[in-house]
Amino acid sequence: MRILIVEDDPLLADGVAQLLRGAGFTADYVGSGEQAEAALATETFDLMVLDIGLPGIDGLELLSRLRARHNPIHVLMLTARDALNERVRGLNLGADDYLTKPFAAVELLARVQALLRRSRGQGGNRRDYGPLTLDQDAHRAWLLGHPLDLPRREWGILQFLLDHPERVLSKERIVAAVCSWDQDMSENAVEVYISRLRTKLEPAGIRIRTVRGLGYMLENPPHDPKPA
Predict the structure, then answer these.
(1) Mean pLDDT of 143-171
(2) Between 171-178 and 187-201, two packed helices, what is the crossing angle to 10 degrees?
(3) Which residues pair with 98 in a beta bridge?
(4) Coil, helix or strand for 99?
(5) Cβ proximity of 67 and 20 under 8 Å
(6) What percent of the chain has pLDDT over 90?
(7) Is residue 87 within 8 Å of 79, Cβ to Cβ?
(8) What does the alpha-carbon distance between residue 7 and residue 3 come to, in Å, rounded to a whole number?
(9) What distance lies between CA 106 and its chain's CA centroid?
(10) How confident is the model at residue 228 (pLDDT cuts 50, 70, 90)?
(11) Which of 182, 211, 207 is nearest to 197 (CA)?
């Protein structure tokens, strides 16, 4: 899952980014509302961690502009302000949740995970796809009930495919979804990770189909066999 952090304190922004990356998310950060608008206009993010007290376009104005354009991104506000009316205004403008600085790292992670589960329409932290089960909070996977080893890149690509089943995803979109701006992954590397995923998943009937010249598509999971 890809997260954009909008925070003008570079130390805090980098700390939050490292925290989220350590939890398995892809996280990037910008220092102003203007930079956030530019990033959101060209790239897709699942969630935004948004500081209210930004220079120039502040967080509330940025949120108002996004909702006026019907941008559905989930928003977790960060604020050092204790005034109740600021928090209420942010929620009324369309923020999904808020944290008041200073905050505990474990609470930030818990709120991010809850919002991302909500974005998938799930109440729990597990998702099932035929014989495959992913526990997104624990970062563990099982196939046919047996533990499945998925290194970080394979995990990220599989999650992206699971979020878009039966849709063709280009190598470029896959790279953008699983890599932060300061990371590099070639499209040839995507082929390698897809090959590794196929080796692990296809024995259970989960297939990643190559659509020549376009990308990859996760096919519908196999149905459970009917009892004899």
Answers:
(1) 89
(2) 90
(3) 77
(4) strand
(5) no
(6) 47
(7) yes
(8) 13
(9) 17
(10) very low
(11) 207
